[in-house]
Give the backbone structure.
Amino acid sequence: MVRAIMLSLLISLPSFAGDNSLTIKTKGTGTSITAKQVGNGNEGYILCGANSSGSLPGTSYVSHTCGSATLSTTVIGNSNNTRLYTVWSNNMDNNYTITIDGNDNFAWLDQDEDDNTSTITQTGDDNHAEQLGSGDDNTYSITQTGDDKYAKIFTFGDNSAFTINQYGSGEHNTYIYNHSNADNNTASVTQYGTGNKDADIFFYSDADNTTVNLTQYGAGAHVANMKFYTDDYNLNVTQSGTTNQAYTATFNCTSNCTKTITITQE
């Protein structure tokens, strides 16, 4: 078991402010990492599941176990840029959390294999959050509040739930891509605030028993584009607010499938 608690704190603004970067690389079962960065430049990399010869993604590494882990990083203020990774191989039953409060933001969370839970929360300023996941019985969640926003979830695997909530005024955007042969998955998206918004949700071929719930509301400029190359699906879309709604969908299953589609524009 590995436990690490790290605090990187810069509350003044000297000429060298911004050099509070964080890098953690570990492996094994039962790892618990809690990292916190408060202050200026920020930057964080946490990699679980690389052996002693491993390194950060983008270079060479050798996969190793990272199971039953709790990986948490909190960033407060200024430039931000935080990433949580696992390396494919026995990365099951993990809990990943990224929390960013304020300024330029960006987050990347990569979870592998089964029974994992991952959460990204961003509050204020430029935002941008992505999640990549594989395996079954996983839970993905992104919440963004205020300013420019943008979120993306790209997944492989079955029996998983995807949730994206975007609040505040304008410039929303949401993208969910579910790979072929990924069954029994649910996507829930809520966007509200003044104007802009947008959502692209694609479920690719032979992804059975799909459920999608999309709600967009606020003062106009809603847009939604969906593509379903699946066998059975339930779809509920609600767009409300002051005019400018638009909805486009491609439903490619024509036989041996059950479709329930509900579209509401107000």
Notes: The chain is about 0% helix and 50% strand. The mean pLDDT is 79.
